[in-house]
Amino acid sequence: MTIRPMRVEDVLAVHDLNVLTFEALDISMGVEPPPRPDPAVALPRYRNLATTDPDGAWVAEEDGEVVGVALALRREDVWGLSLLLVRPDRQSSGIGGALLARAHAYAEGARGRIIMASPDPRALRAYSRLGLDLHPYVAAVGTPKPAAPPAGVRVGDATDIPLTETVDRHVRGAARGQDIATLLEMRQTLLIVPERGYAVVNTDGAVRIVAALDDEAAADLLRAALARATGRVELETLTAKQQWAVAVALEAGLELRINSGGAMFTSGDVGTFTPYLPSGAFL
Ligand SMILES: CC(C)(COP(=O)(O)OP(=O)(O)OC[C@H]1O[C@@H](n2cnc3c(N)ncnc32)[C@H](O)[C@@H]1OP(=O)(O)O)[C@@H](O)C(=O)NCCC(=O)NCCS
């Protein structure tokens, strides 16, 4: 097994490995895996991060095959772990730890660090031992009650990226306009409350990010996102800091679940971290 920098040619292998590994994790936990993402939508994430953050992008290779990957990003000196996984048949043999060490070396000297962890106990152990603080998640799941979208929310585009940068410096300590551009390339929709906040949602209404300067704007953005949902939604990463989101989820008729596992890990200067629902991929 060798660990080497990820190359742009690896993106399809990394995507396939991501789908396979998280399906296996879901099945091992008795959870039905989500529908497979369209590679055309998923690939810009891997391609862009391998290009913009080569010091954070590593793969483990065995017999010419990619068996593990770590992707980290660093924006305005805040570091985040976007992806860490090892092929199921090669897990628990030290590969994940070795990949994480490489990706985490890229955090050297960073002001802040962010990781959104899956419920895998190996991941929870490894991130805790890097010295980050653990904030467990609650999930809110269900089909939102039909509701009219709030009047103050409009659909945005790339010209709204400067607003996202102001908001992100507040809620997460660092702007990442290039990642918002990547999300638009991934056919996600930007929702805007002018001068106060933004959300990123998938075409089916799945919520990728909600970030705002105040709780009321964040609540309206989440209401707007839920009003667009075409079926069941899962807000999987509500920490104790996001009481505003719990209130909106309950108002929409979603059910709270405390047993789905996983945790947010933060360290150092990462802004207020509220009102904020981060993206697992872009933190
Ligand atoms: C999480 C994951 C990346 C870890 O990689 P790995 O190669 O399986 O793990 P490692 O063998 O490097 O072990 C990592 C740590 O977990 C411990 N560990 C290994 N197997 C374990 C097990 N079955 N139960 C609990 N801890 C275990 C190791 O001892 C190590 O801790 P240490 O460094 O303090 O000794 C990998 O298991 C995986 O892909 N899981 C599914 C996808 C996922 O959840 N990714 C994380 C997303 S945030």
Jot down its keywords.
283 residues; alpha+beta; Aminopeptidase; 2 domains; seven-stranded mixed sheet; five-stranded antiparallel sheet; 8 helices; 15 strands; globular; binds coenzyme A; acyltransferase activity, transferring groups other than amino-acyl groups
User: Which strand order do you get reading across the main beta sheet?
Assistant: 1-2-3-4-5-14-6
What distance separates the N and C termini? 29 Å
Kindly provide the radius of gyration, computed on alpha-carbon positions and rounded to a whole number of angstroms. Answer: 18 Å
Report the bound ligands by name, code or SMILES: coenzyme A
- The tally of helices reads 8
* Main beta-sheet annotation: 7 strands, mixed
Average pLDDT, all residues: 96
Unreliable stretches:
none
Query: What is the N-to-C succession of helices and strands?
Result: EHHEEEHEHEEEHHEEEHEHEEE
Strand content: 25-35%
Domains (count):
2
CATH architecture of the largest domain: 3-Layer(aba) Sandwich
Shape: globular
Organism: Solirubrobacter phytolaccae
Domain N-acetyltransferase: 1-168
Protein name: GNAT family N-acetyltransferase
GO molecular function: acyltransferase activity, transferring groups other than amino-acyl groups
